[in-house]
Structures are given as structure tokens and as C-alpha cells.
Amino acid sequence: MNQHDFIAKWRATELKERSAAQEHFIDLCRLLDEPTPAEDDPTGQRYCFERGARKDSGGSGWADVWKRHCFAWEYKGPHKDLDAAFNQLRQYALALENPPLLVVSDMVRFRIHTNWTNSVSVVHEFTLDDLADGAVRDKLKWAMSDPERLRPGESRQSLTERAASSFAALAQALRDRGHAPQEVAHFVNRLVFCMFAEDVGLLPNEMFTRMLEHARGMPREFAAMASELFGKMATGGRMVLTASSTFNRMAQMG
């Protein structure tokens, strides 16, 4: 199967997850010249479909595909929530021997999340049509058989140090403008909490990131947007990120 056949087949498919996931993965193996789970490991001990696992929160589930020391893979139906799929997969990670890559796909979108200990997590995201590009196909092939090629270069420690330095510079700049140290510390703490809240899903739809991206182009709007966001996080309610037509989605807070 070549990339054009694969793209055409799965662009036209309307099958649901349960009906399509294993065939989709086998087609990927054919596309990438990789052995299927049964070809590579007839025993299913290190590479298989539907690997059972215990959730961190209790109960049991399974990864749709798992290969020891390589990846755990979760499928969802077309256009389903891949963030939810990733959060589900993370609950199995330890029981699946903490694979270095966590992959989620709805058969037309792919996200490869790196998962090495003490390493910054990087997300490689692409679509079905992107598989026409050999460099994109290489990433999937590496995920299946050579995950080290996707290992990020920056450690969590170095990222933490860089982030701490940036926040220290921000705090100093605000104090230099005459803001009281206690107010500056409170503001910086709120920013850090927003990052945490977005990471764990308390802030939906990447709201904080989108707010910052918008503020880069219109910095005078930042104070008003941040004030509204902090207020809604404290009290709950609905928030329009901005009146601009570029960002007019609404989100429920609390």
C-alpha cells in the first residue's frame, strides 16, 4: 500500500472506531513497511492489539495497540476528542511499562506525545493528508520501531530553569515599573496556575494559550482579558475570550 492509496481509503471511510481501528493500524504497517503485531510477536507478549492495563485511578481498560519500549496507541472515532483520548491513555501508562511514546489518532489525525522520564514532552501532530510527506511518514515509522529518534533534547530540569528565569525577569520588569512586590508575586502565581489549569483541562480549548497568542498582536487588550479570565476562574461563568472575530469562541468556567 502506498501513501496515496492509504490516504484515499481512509479519507472515504465512515466506519466507527471499533470497526476500523485494527485495520487502520495494519494498513499503516503496510504503508511504512513495518511488521504487524501478529507478524512481529505471535505470542502478543511485547506487541499486540488491546493490551489490558489497570488505570491509575482504579478500574481497568486497555490500549488499542501496545509495543513494549516503543508506544501505547489509543484510537477514537473520526473527529472525536483527542485530548480526552490522551488523558485516557495516560491513566494506563505505568501499567503499560511507561512507554516512551503515547499516540492518539481518530484515523484522520495523529498526535505522538513523547513520554520519556525527566524529559520535556513534545507533541508531533499531523493529518491524514500530511502522510503524503515522507518526513511525516518517517515519524510514524520511528514511533513503531525506533522511538529514540523522537526523544526531545531538552530535560525537564533545563525547561524548569529556563521558565523560572523568564518569570524572574518578568517580575523584575513589573517591579521596575513601580508595581508593588506583593502584587507582582500574586500576578505571577496566577499566570503559573493558569498554565497548570490548562495542562490538566480545567481551562478548556487552550484558552490561556490562545489569549496569550492574541495579546502578542494586541498587547493593550491583555490586562482586560487577563482580569476577566482570573475573575471567571474565581467565580465561574461564561467568558468570551475577545470581541475580535478571530477569537470569538465561548467557554464554560466552573
Summarize the structure in words.
- By secondary structure, the protein is α+β, with helices and mostly antiparallel strands.
- It folds into 2 domains: 3-150, tt1808, chain A (Alpha-Beta Complex); 156-253, no CATH class.
- 46% of the residues lie in helices and 18% in strands.
- The protein has 9 helices and 8 strands.
- It has a 6-stranded mixed sheet with strand order 1-2-3-4-5-6, sandwiched between helices. It has a two-stranded antiparallel ribbon with strand order 7-8.
- Helix 6 (156-176) packs antiparallel against helix 7 and helix 8 (207-217) runs antiparallel to helix 9 (222-235).
- The longest helix has 21 residues, at 156-176.
- The radius of gyration is 21 Å and the shape is elongated.
- It starts with a helix and ends with a strand.
Q: Compute the gyration radius: what is it?
A: 21 Å
The SSE order reads HHHEEEHEEEHHHHHEE
Taking the sheet with the most strands, its summary is: 6 strands, mixed
Helicity level: 40-55%
Number of strands: 8
Name the strands of the widest sheet in spatial order: 1-2-3-4-5-6
Q: Catalogue the unreliable spans.
A: 242-254
Q: What share of the residues does DSSP label as strand, in percent?
A: 15-25%
Number of helices: 9
Shape: elongated
| CATH topology (level 3) name of the largest domain | tt1808, chain A
CATH class identity of the largest domain? Alpha Beta
**Termini separation:** 48 Å
> What average pLDDT do the residues reach?
84
Q: Judging by the overall fold, what is the CATH architecture of the largest domain? A: Alpha-Beta Complex
